[in-house]
Amino acid sequence: MDIDSKTVDLIQQIYGCIPEPLVRGLEKLSADAASQAQNELWSERDVVLITYADQVRESGMTPLQSQRRFLLDHGLQELIRCVHLLPFCPFTSDDGFSVVDYLAVDPEVGTWQDITELGRDFDLMFDLVLNHASQKHHWFQAYLRGDAGYENFFIEQNTNADLSTVVRPRSLPLLTQFESSNGTRNVWTTFSADQVDLNYANPRVMYLMLETLVEYARRGARIIRLDAIAFLWKQIGTDCIHRPETHAAVKLMRRVLDKLVPGTLVLTETNVPHGENVSYFGCGDDEAHMVYQFSLPPLLLDAIHNTDTTVLRDWLSTIQPPSEITTFFNFTASHDGIGVRPLEGIVSQERVDKLAAIVRSHGGRVSNRRQSDGTDSPYELNITYLDAVADSSKVEPQEHSRCFLATQAIMLALPGIPAVYFHSLVGSPNDVAAVIETGQNRRINRHKYERQTLESVIAEPQGLQRRVFEGFRRLLAVRIAQPAFHPKASMQVLPLAGDGLLGFVRTTETGERLAVVANLTHSARVIPNGLVDEALAYDELALERIWSEDGIPMRPFQVRWLTAN
Questions:
Q1: 286 an active-site residue?
Q2: Would you list the domain boundaries of the chain?
Q3: Is residue 38 predicted with pLDDT exceeding 70?
Q4: Does CATH number 2.60.40.1180 belong to domain 490-563?
Q5: What pTM was computed for the model?
Q6: Residue 333 in contact with residue 421, Cβ under 8 Å?
């Protein structure tokens, strides 16, 4: 690629010099660069499905083949544009996030050809697990052997160093002791002993990850998720999170993709307080195209369980991407738990503690992280989002599905690209047995299905999973037909009372409007006239005109999408 002044400046920001091996590597990458037409970045039809490569299994097929077959058999290619395949490489732990080989497909899930076939029906999103690699990765094994060229691939640290300021995402030791050919080594392991942090102060590491990034894009990834990117750069004496070098590295990755595989979108994963999270937009044209809307999942739960939409309403009034070429990645559930750090500065610790207690009462778990003073505090709530919104042992399937689908209807209507976790789509309950069996809290919402079992539960008459699956399909079908749900469409939050009611209006660049009104309570409510334009009187979800002199009637946990149809 052309090592222009902007690229040089980014490299200089990271290293304070221009490392020759990195420059030579970038020039090598450009040798087979191909021009690619850039289409519109996104539209109202963009919906992402988050799923594991082995999410669905059946005999006679690889899991990747089986999942593709399931999606096509249920017509989901008409409703979902992009499939986010969680890490599909060979791995040793954490359900894929301890990578052994970045450029291989785990033979247990399928082949690159299977991924290519999936890419013929859907756009694709891949994970780049770039902060750390597995102990079994050949880079780390070479490091332990003392092989030339690998001595600085990982971060050794003196145990006497003051690491008290380092932000910790887990209540686990920051350093792990390994025996090498040169004796005992204490190595940086932010997330677990089997996830060894890569040393980006070594330009060779940076180049190899840039090479992987480009290869993913060339293999069909329209979106690339930068996993745990906030922790990339370590500097003793700092908090080792969101370092200037980290932001410069994201900008360099964006620059390389823009040059070599234009049209590839960069998504940063930073499960941190909102202000820190949106900092990865950079100036609006130089860093991430998208950031996760991490505050949304817990704020929706907070609104429901407190019958108070004030905090959610006020927060929605503040969210605005910095440019037309940036947007939010909206979701309520993923392979991880529901992070509570994104609530910092938005809700009180008392309300966070209340959410944690509710999750425990609904069969979930609460995971902690280590603070700088040595104490532990809640980091994430481990529970399926379905079970987070209501206790299935106390509510009927009809009420439970209505409550859950209300949260999804709000998420789908917000500015940005919506992402739906497979277990939300099919209404999976907590997998408590997996937690007990493995001792890992996150397994509670990572259940893997046999195809026959899955088909059975989503076909059960009046069953909760069938209600959720069919309800979600209906929401998606209506959603992708509404121009007002284009990521570029503006949002105006309505001044509704914060006692469980919520509303906002989406408006396209050409003036088309859609009003979203929601009742997140167990009681019927009425939205007074005068707050929503009378012209927006047709409910696209209920397929009815609703305007009356008494206001807009709202059943418990009802969401209306109102147009001038």
A1: no
A2: 490-563
A3: no
A4: yes
A5: 0.96
A6: yes
